[in-house]
Write a structure and sequence with these properties.
Strand content: 5-15%
Structural class: alpha/beta
Oligomer: single chain
Number of helices: 9
Strand order of the largest sheet: 2-3-1-4-5
C-alpha cells in the first residue's frame, strides 16, 4: 500500500486489533461506486479461496451497516472493528472487506477499524452507463431511493479516480466477477494463493 494512514493499535474504536493480531492479519479492501461490482467480486473471491481451502472471512460493510438513521462515523467504525475482531478471534487472518470509500478520510477510518498489518486496496470502476444499468436491474421497481442512488453513483465514478491510495484498479465492464477475482489474487499471490496461469 502506497500511503501511510497511521493505523491505530489502541482501543480507539472499542476493540481495535492488538499488535500481535495486526502483525498476522492481511486484508483485501474492495471499493468502488454503487454498481461497480463490489459484492459480486467479494463473493467470487471468497468462493475461489474456499475452493482452494484458504481460510478467510468476508465482510460486506454496507450490508451489515444498513440501518436508519445512519450511524455516525464512530459507530460505524466500532461495528467494523468488532466484526473484524470476531473473525480474528476465530482464527481468520485473511479478511476480505467491501465498502464504498468516498474520501481519503473514509479510507483511513476503514483501515483503522479493520486493524490489519498489510492491505491490498482495490478500486473497481465501470462506465457510468454500466453503473446505472446494474443498479436499475438490482433494485426493486419503484424504490424511492433509486434516483438519488443513480446520481450518487455517477458522481462517485467521477471523483473516486482522484483517490491515489489504491494498489489495483480494475474496470469491471464486460468482466465476469470470477475473472476480476483472479486478477486480485494475482496481485498478491503470497497472501491470496493465486492459481498458476492467473
Amino acid at each position: 500500500m502506497g500511503a501511510n494512514f497511521g493505523l491505530a493499535d489502541s482501543d480507539e474504536h472499542g476493540g481495535a486489533a492488538s499488535m500481535k493480531e495486526q502483525s498476522t492479519t492481511f486484508a483485501v479492501v474492495l471499493s468502488g461506486p454503487p454498481g461497480s461490482g463490489k459484492t459480486a467480486v467479494l463473493i467470487a473471491l471468497a468462493d475461489a479461496l474456499r475452493d482452494d481451502d484458504l481460510a478467510h472471512a468476508a465482510l460486506d460493510v454496507e450490508a451489515f451497516a444498513w440501518v436508519h438513521p445512519a450511524p455516525s462515523d464512530e459507530q460505524r467504525g466500532r461495528s467494523i472493528a468488532t466484526m473484524c475482531n470476531v473473525h480474528r478471534e476465530a482464527g481468520h487472518r485473511l479478511l476480505l472487506v467491501a465498502d464504498t470509500v468516498e474520501t481519503e478520510d473514509d479510507l483511513a477510518r476503514l483501515l483503522d477499524s479493520i486493524g490489519a498489518h498489510d492491505y491490498l486496496l482495490v478500486r473497481l470502476e465501470a462506465r457510468p452507463e454500466t453503473l446505472r444499468k446494474r443498479i436499475i436491474e438490482r433494485e426493486p421497481e419503484g424504490w424511492w431511493g433509486l434516483p438519488e442512488l443513480l446520481d450518487h453513483a455517477t458522481a462517485l465514478a467521477a471523483t473516486m479516480p482522484n483517490l491515489d491510495a489504491f494498489d489495483l484498479v480494475v474496470n469491471t465492464d464486460g468482466e465476469r466477477p470470477e475473472t476480476v477475482a483472479d486478477r486480485i489474487r494475482a496481485a498478491r499471490p503470497g497472501q491470496l494463493g493465486a492459481r498458476s496461469g492467473s
